[in-house]
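can u pls check wat happens w/ zinc ion
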Amino acid sequence: MTASLASPSFEFDTIIKNARIVTASEVYEHISAIGIKDGVIQAIATSLPATSSTLVVDAEGAYVTPGGIDSHVHLHQDNAPSGDKWLSGSRSALAGGNTTILAFATQEHKNDTLFPVLEEYHGRARDQCYIDYGFHVILTKPNPTILEHELPKLAAEGGISSVKLYMTYPGKKLDDGSMLNIMMATRELGMTTMIHAENSDMIDLVTKKLLEHQRTSPYYHALARPQIAESEATHRAIALATLTSAPILLVHMSTPVALTHARKAQSKELLPVHAETCPHYLYLTSQQLASTTNIHQDEHGHVHEDEDEWAGAKHICAPPLRHDESDLQSLWDAVNNGTITVISSDHAPTCYDDVTGKKKPVEAAKARGDGSKPTFAATPNGLPGIETRLPLLFHAATSPDMRPERRISLPKFVAVTATNAAKLYGMAGKKGSIAPGYDADITVWYPESDARGKTRIGNKMLHHAIDYTPFEGMEVCNWPRKTFLRGRLVWDRDIELKDGYGKGLLGGPGDGQWLSRSRGQVLVGRVGQTPAGMKVGEREEWGLKV
Ligand code: DUC
Ligand code: ZN
């Protein structure tokens, strides 16, 4: 495929040659060259002409994939004082092969208008981001002005084409009525509504009972948020979206029954219900929460283990890690059968050893000094994972060691890590693929024969500002070797390995551009489907334009 017939006068700033290009639809049969000019992919051909000023990068026959798009990350959130801010979070994203992140601008209850919120979040991110970025708006207290005037303005002029809602957490959760009102507004604007689906009252009841029975350690977090809480809320969220005909994305799905609700909505009812999961739900079980050992590597790669009865808190996230391998398998199956649309990191870290971090309840108990125990319920939720997402999933796509039932194809890897997010969130044609006219956001992996790709994950090698990784000690078969952001080489791991930590980051925190996103595409089902039991045109009677 070429943008035009290459002639000797066709000049490129950069050529990536000997590339085995992967897109969401195929692995190119022929080793190819990618010609880049002014930050954009201009041509793909079996070979391309270089001039004396062209930077020629040899991929050595390795796979070359679109730069990762992590469409669900939390940076500089007020409820995570020891979490990553934009600089460290985006640095870590880049070193993990990403070129775009979508983070959150959160409305607090005190905010009756969204504009100052967005201004604040723009200020937090500006000149602090190594890669391109955008925001989803978290709505915690919608009002008529926001729904009728502000969201339309944000969609039309503000470059925001998605909102997120919570069905759990005090201060964030919305009742069904509020969710319906938001869906009525977003569907008209073509915005995607992301939903954190867990039944808050079920979680409150079980948590209270566990604490009454002195079940306080981190492991009980996994019992406090049972699968039924996710599957009930998922079913309800789908019902609300069905009534209003609103495209939704169920974030961080972790539960087989919830997945069957999504699958049925997509395939039987053809509803625009998208689904997301994260590497931690694919790879880790609740056994991690029972850990009483801190494992870390020193600078020589030696592994140390220290006893710490609170260590399981490092794996506290919501929804929680699930108990059984069969739960994990249901997620791998859902990736492979198309139920899952995107795999994000849900990077939502707090440091472990910090008074505001995962050890907060331990520190608070010490401060109280009354002998009362720390509890899992007072531990901040969330895991770091922005840098490990792509290597963990690329491993599933390429490692011969991966169990057959958990393998994914390379085009599936590209679809769920980049292409689908670009389409769903209004960046199609610009981000998320390797094709003429697209931004030259490209990640080059190591050839299988290059031993430098094989990596044992250790927190020491990561570029976030967090003191642990939930994937400590796991081995992956490859790591992003070089990453181009709009045509510029901004990450080179060969340099990092040769010259030391941090040296592979060739880009800087001012490189990231804010992405004004347009209306997203519906990738599953269709808008306007008449729900079972309703007559065609029935909803028009109460004013819904379908
Ligand atoms: N759960 C959330 O709801 N948000 C961020 C992190 C987490 O684990
Ligand atoms: Zn999240």
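The first strand starts at residue 14 and ends at 21.
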